[in-house]
Automatic annotation (TrEMBL):
Signal peptide: none annotated. This is TIGR03087 family PEP-CTERM/XrtA system glycosyltransferase. InterPro entries: Glyco_trans_4-like_N, Glycosyltransferase_grp1, Sugar_tfrase_PEP-CTERM_Stp1. Residues 23-206 form the Glycosyltransferase subfamily 4-like N-terminal domain. It comes from the Bacteria. Gene3D superfamilies: Glycogen Phosphorylase B.
Amino acid sequence: MGDALFLAHRTPFPPDRGDRIRAYNFLRYIGARARVHLVAFSDGDEPVDHTALDALTASHTIVPRTKSNARAAIEALATGRAVSVAAFDHPALRAAVSRVLATQPIDAIHVFSSALAQYLPTHTKARVVMDFCDVDSAKFGEYAREARGPKRWLCAREERRLLAFDRAIARRADASLFVSDAEAALFAEIGGGGRVSVIENGIDTELFDPAADFASVEADGPLIVFTGQMDYQPNVAAVTWFATDILPIVRARHPDARFAIVGRAPTPAVQALAGEHVIVTGEVAEVRGWIAAAAAVVAPLRIARGIQNKVLEAMAMARPVVASTPAAEGIDHAGTLRTGADANEIAREVIALLDDRVAGDLLGQAARAQVQRRYGWEARLQPLDALLGLQPNPVRAEPVEAHAPDTHFDTLSANGVGRRR
């Protein structure tokens, strides 16, 4: 085959959050089988590791996203588009895609996040794979049901407009990917159509290994841990719910238990939870030490789509996990997770793990074994060979002009709409 174009809404390196982890592993897999040209946005004033991208790609163009949430909303309302689409509309990225298509022999296009599908050429002979990951329109529907006033109207509008956009893209794509059977079934149920496939998330079980070398965290008393990007609203809602409604039930039985919220960019609402029994770390250099120190890892998300990387990471680290029903839905855990549908059920499962730490350790070991059997990245991504026409044997090429002025842009300060995870 010829070259591949990889479009991403966020630079897929470093793989330090859910969407980046999936995009990075897809990019690495495709790049081991074809010359791949990356065109992606960068967030805010984050540094871009061009050396790492050189090793992954034949060329890369990184465009800083400078559009504010307010401007994206105004443009969306004025043009009838979804805000999620308007937020990622940028002339520099459009020019970069056109340049790659005009100068490189592109036989396959992989689009990560449907908002980037607006850059697909109107007519192309290249195979197009659209990685939706989750049914994001359904997420906005859930937001609408919980919101009030203008926010409710805006979220309901976003659900309708984004679903219409995604349906149109699915009809154009040679394959539409989702992260779980449940997400694929939901897309079909709401009229998504197209040729739908499921490629689940994987996990690096050598990196997330309790026997690996990482800095340890000392805990006084049993530690209950949540990990995630802490300016992502479902995560904010999850830790707020746990700290205010679930932790008091747990502490009635285990008064020395503490709750650690581990993740970058905690919002003021998250920071306000910090106290004698709640730790808010902010960004940490090494998340594995916190997971390893946990008597239980929790994922009490009320709104959750697809497979939660935070859950796979904790399972791979052989820690017992208690997840809400939505957070566990996409994971083939074979009974190695404890789940709860409400605050009392989640609290009961956490208490049981704190009551019997030996049973918790055994559950964690079973969880790691399940992850090793089920969620290795190489096995999960093999369907891409047929979908994109990739060569099974590596054909990596040296990067070409990865630092030429017309190949990438300097990173500037930006505000914008972001995904998680």
